[in-house]
Amino acid sequence: MALPRAIRRTNPMTLVLATLLALGFLVFIFSPSSNAAAISTAKRKFDSAAAHPLSPPTAPFQKAPSSLKGKRPPPPVVHYHMNNVTTTSDPVRNQESILILTPLARFYQGYWNNLLKLSYPHSLISIGFITPKTREGNTATAALQAAIAQTQNGPEDQRFASISILRQDFDPPISSQDEAERHKKENQKARRSAMSRARNSLLFTTIGPSTSWVLWLDADIVESPPSLIQDLTSHDKPVIVPNCFQRFKNDKGQWDIRPYDYNSWQDSQQAADLAAKLAPDDILVEGYADIATYRTLMARTADLSETRNQKEIVQLDGVGGTALLVKAEVHRDGAMFPPFAFYHLMETEGFAKMARRLGWSCWGLPNYF
Q1: Any residues with CB less than 8 A from the CB of 300 and at least 6 apart, and which?
Q2: What DSSP line would sit under 266-312, residue for residue?
Q3: Kind of pairing, strands 245-249 and 362-365?
Q4: Residue 101: enclosing H or E segment and its boundaries?
Q5: Where is average pLDDT lowest: 37-46, 81-90, 158-167, 263-272?
Q6: CB 195 within 8 A of CB 337
Q7: Its pTM surpasses 0.85
Q8: Residue 54, SS3?
Q9: Three-state SS across 47-66?
Q10: Which candidate, 104, 120, 121, 125, places its Cα nearest to that of 57?
């Protein structure tokens, strides 16, 4: 049968183009719009956000969309099932949230770089800072904000779940943050009281209902194993602290290490006898030759050999705060950093005493540093 003249004169390429145009038209009509995709993405972000502005900053808060009358709905009543929050020896597998807290008077780029090297999933890490309202604190805050902006706008696997910066609402007790000034014995009571207030403000403001662990990390910690969090949590202890050493150049001009944090110790009878003679508001401090407590300092018991057992663990009566890991339930149970003399102890050492009085044990890793 012969084809009609109109079809015989039609170029085959024309038929192909017509078919493609028809298919494109059908796809355009029936495919979801980009606006719908954007709405879906926004919904996913909103679902993962904090429930209301009073929620602790374990997730970013986003305002709910306005109603048709321009009024926002009231914040919902939120129920948190705290029994579902776990603290285990395998926090990565159990997706446990870590809250890293740092009182910060000076910003060190090495500190931030060390944070970025942590191998624990950054999506499970929230960070909180508190800085003093001083000229030095303002400089530190500006540098910190610049580092945060660069990281949080960078690759997603490097971004942290949330970051909070608090400013102290009280004046620092000493004007300088130089190491020599900070460690003067006459400055210890006022300095440690202020540090306790800063730590407590930071803790109570940032801890959230999903927080499993709290890692206290000093602002001058610039070198630690990338697996620090996994290594400490693997022991599954309520309170645990590694040793902290400082790099320095010795008399031969060579790099060496020396103990830095003397606040992790086992108590002694001599210290108890000294404390019994003190006035109620006096405190005992470590690291000073004229105060002979004869406590067993964890910093002095470290095995410096390459074959040391890094998993060796000992029970402690006092802990330092350079890198202190605490199960969040210990803090929720009421263990905080006393800004007053608590059994003649303050700050992290007072915290250890308070935790032990509440029934929690404190542990140290003398060969892990």
Answers
A1: 259
A2: E--HHHHHHHHTS-TT----SS-TTS----EEGGGS---STT--TT-
A3: unpaired
A4: strand 97-103
A5: 37-46
A6: yes
A7: no
A8: coil
A9: HCCECCCCCCCCCCECCCCC
A10: 125
